[in-house]
Amino acid sequence: MKTIAREVLITVLLALVIFMAIRTIAYNFEVSGQSMEPNLHHGQFVMISKIAYWFDEPGRGDIVVYYSDRVQHHVIHRIVGLPGETIAVRNGRVYINGQVLDEPYIQDGSRTIPAQHVPDNKYYIVGDNRDAASWELVPEDNIVGKAWMTYWPLSEWGSVPNY
């Protein structure tokens, strides 16, 4: 009887260690709302790599999950502006330091936002469906990780369209 209890305890502890190791490097996230249409859809599940930025900086075009101080929960959107750049939006088009950003992944928008400087250690992040998305300056520390792959529904299984 002691042997069975010992084996069960070892199995449970090993499962816990494996679970914690996986949660340290990966995070699953459910897309909520239409702000990432047409690339990600409401109810879709995405696997997030928490280690993607351990050795590299977040980049323009990356889809990331971050904690939004504005709405007080995690959000999934795309990085469009990097630290030190000046970002403006005219008729839904993003301009970086005066040059239009090529964004084949967006749904057309109509918003206009005055130019603003992206401070050090912050990123300008917005959803692909520009009229349904929030536009935020996000501290690097609030970024949880980079979207890696979608896994549910199975018909949407595959890599996430980072550019």
Please, could you describe this protein's structure?
By secondary structure, the chain is mainly beta. It has a single domain, classed as Umud Fragment, subunit A. 15% of the residues lie in helices and 39% in strands. The chain has one helix at residues 2-25; strands at residues 26-30, 45-49, 63-68, 73-81, 86-90, 93-96, 99-100, 113-117, 122-126, 135-139, 143-152, 158-159. Strands 1, 2, 3, 4, 9, 10, 11 and 12 form an eight-stranded antiparallel sheet that branches. Strands 7-6-5-8 form a four-stranded antiparallel sheet, with no helix packed on it. A hairpin with a 4-residue loop joins strand 3 and strand 4. It is elongated and about 75 Å long. The model has no long low-confidence stretch (mean pLDDT 87).
Show the helix and strand layout.
Layout (H helix, E strand, L loop, with lengths): L1 H24 E5 L14 E5 L13 E6 L4 E9 L4 E5 L2 E4 L2 E2 L12 E5 L4 E5 L8 E5 L3 E10 L5 E2 L4
Antiparallel strand pairs: 1-2, 2-11, 3-4, 3-11, 4-9, 5-6, 5-8, 6-7, 9-10, 11-12
Give structural attributes.
mainly beta, eight-stranded antiparallel sheet, Umud Fragment, subunit A, 15% helix, 163 residues
Brief description of this entry?
With 163 residues, this protein is mainly β. Helix content is 15%, strand content 39%.
